[in-house]
Structures are given as C-alpha cells and as structure tokens.
Design goal:
3 helices; 2 strands; mainly alpha; about 45% helix
Length: about 90
Amino acid sequence: MAKEARAIMNATEFKRVFKAAQTYVDGVDTNILFGCGLSDFKRVAVTTEVAGAFLRGETICLNGNFDMEAVNNIREIYRRKVILLD
C-alpha cells in the first residue's frame, strides 16, 4: 500500500514525533494541523518536524513537562488523520 494511501500513524512514527516535540524549533509552520481534532478535518501529510512542533505547542506545560493526557489525545488524532512524509 502506498504511503499516501494509509491513514494510520503507527507507534514507531509517533515515537519519532514525540522525540521531535521535546526540542523547541522556532519558525515551524504548523497551520496545516490547526483544527485537526474536528470531525471534518481532512487527512494531511506533514514532516516529523511539523507534527512534533504542533504536538509540543499543544501539550507542553509552563513547567516544561508534557501534559500526557493531551499527548495521548493528539496521538489518537495523528493516528487517524496524519501521514508522515519522512
């Protein structure tokens, strides 16, 4: 099956995204993922860097830790709606 045709981000891919989220990268445009939790959001293909930056922005706490409940929520969204290009 072609990578573009599948809609499931597997556990290995999400681990790469979570690792990318642990480092702040300035200037990454994450607008393509805005609204990804909505039911009518269409499947998108992004790089690990974009997915990680969005995950960080949505789940990082002021003390520098991740809100793991929010991380799990985003993981479920990514699993259904995000395809990694790299």
